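Predict fold of Catalase; 707 aa.
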Amino acid sequence: MNKNKQSDAKFHQMKQATVENSNQKLTTNDGVPIYDNNNTLKVGDRGPSLQQDHIYFDKLAHFDRERIPERVVHARGSGAHGILEIHEDISEYTCAKFLQKGTTTPLFTRFSTVAGFKGSTDLARDVRGFSVKFYTEDGNYDLVGNNIPVFFIQDAMNFPDLIHSVKPEPDKEYPQAASAHDTFWDFISLMPESAHMIMWAMSDRAIPRSLRMMEGFGVHTFKLVNKDGKATFVKFHWKPKLGVHSVAWNEAQKLSGFNSDFHRQDLYEAIEAGNYPQWDLGVQLIPEEDEFKYSFDILDATKLVPEELVPVKIIGTMTLNRNPENFFAETEQVAFDPGRIIPGIDLTDDPLLQGRVFSYMDTQNYRLGGANFHEIPINRPVNQKHNNQKDGTGRIDILKGGVSYFPNSKASGCPYHAMLKGEEGFQSHEQQVDGKKVRARSDSFADHFSQATLFFNSQSEAEKQHIINALSFELSKVNDPKIRERQVAILNQIDADLAKKVGDNLNITPPKELDELTLKFARQNHPNYPLKVKKNEISSSDALSMKVKAGEGTIKTRKVAFLVDNGVSKASVDEFKKALEKEGAEAVLISSKVGPLTYQEGYTENIEHTYLTDPSVCYDAVFTPGGKSVDALKKNADYYEFINDAYRHCKVLAFAKEAESLLDRSFVEVDKGVKLESKESNWVESFINTMKLHRIWEREEQRKVPS
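Predicted 3D structure, encoded as tokens:
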């Protein structure tokens, strides 16, 4: 064979290597065949993961280095400084000093989306990261969580696959920050363990009104350990003082166009204005002896512990009171790691948590340029660090002396073990571990649908319809009909009515049984799947719905658009504005042009917001004052687009008596969310009380108004 033919043959081989793999064994990067790509190596099927799991480490180390310089996941984020104040005594359960009654601990919180790149929109339908770094006297403690209490997968081995599926498709590099495409739903439809999380992700929880108005969860079950070494299982909760609220899907799409930084700006401006966001810190405490008490496994990250079974005990309050001075130095460089724990808190054998402990540390080492990322100011512990590490890339501290090892005598044995002088130091909770070395999944993790059904049953009718709409939208974006049908089969295991309504929108009759391919993958973890599962303790939970009950809401920090023009009545504006500000809300005047506005009474005011810059989606409610301005508004198409959109998105609207005639040219119909001065003597108070409900979701059904 001549050189040209040899070259052609080599090129042909290389070209063949780029063809999509088919009928080939899964292998490591070294070509070693992989027997099980779903489970980390554990001691027994429910025990801790092993450090010798070279296949997992190889897979995750590659994944952690796939994006540079932004985070692989949670790239789009916003952060703020604050404090945690503890006001309840839980010393019976933990010796963690920062959790003792009366303590105040500085902290930094970062909120984020998961799937999108750093420049993506804040309003994507996505999980939100909710991570807090506590600068305690015993070192840094990171509570790395989300705004949803469960996750898509049970074992960390599948994490790269999950993220690869939701990221832009590798051959196209789109869609950006979106799950509505083939690769994501292909993965999900083959992973029935994702069923519960999908219900949350397709609900309004995935499009929050504000970062200040979403719950936070530690997701995993952790351990609290007291001074006697006794452990108690714990779930961490953050409950926002302002309530839990969302935006409508159509509203989120429009917001992304008008202001893709909506959440980031909202958080920053609230703190600058002194409207400090607050969350109550709550814990669910489960005695060690109750570990196997429930129908679900508390170590399964796709399950939650219903508050009806284990109430959330509120122990403190977090307040965010200072914005970063340099976004990159603080928000972008802050490094979170669920393995950063302190005395009084410990990890459990949750296989997803076990894997995260390696992955997060490995990611930060890579992303921030080396092992000294802890010396970056935002990551420094307040009690300083003392060890024998003096070298490495990105070193900031200049450490003196000729000793960099332990034990030593040349530096008088320093730094010394805490135990040598009878001082406190971190000790892992003593736990009996015994089992065969296996790649397997505990059968106690095999119930994939009961809690998905619980979540759906717990929603209001409007929330259920939003889930149906979201699933219909997402699956309509999927091109492969087999993927759509597989997913509808999964929905049918959750709720038959849900599956039928989504199926109707896709022209699919819901299959009664799971697809054979889905069963094949499920049986790789549980050979006898589906197994008989325990009966759920409860059928619905009020804590899982976002519906606001009458009298429970607040309008504090909400923005109300006052739609004005020259000749508007100052008396009408002032009456409404005064009542709103008394409740902590903000009135924002919007007109056709920026600059001076002349009131009917002759006063002038400078206008900073117009219809061109501020659409209705940026506001929580709308008021049209009275005065001679009504004639100008009747001729203003932008005005009508504003009130029609607000009505469509189920917001509360109010009209002064002189402005009521404007309704004739709109499609706004009077309902409990439309307040008219001529109809109610206490109409301003009625407007405020109705605003506290957040939305008039019934309007969607009554008026057939899609939101």
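The two ends are 69 Å apart (CA to CA).
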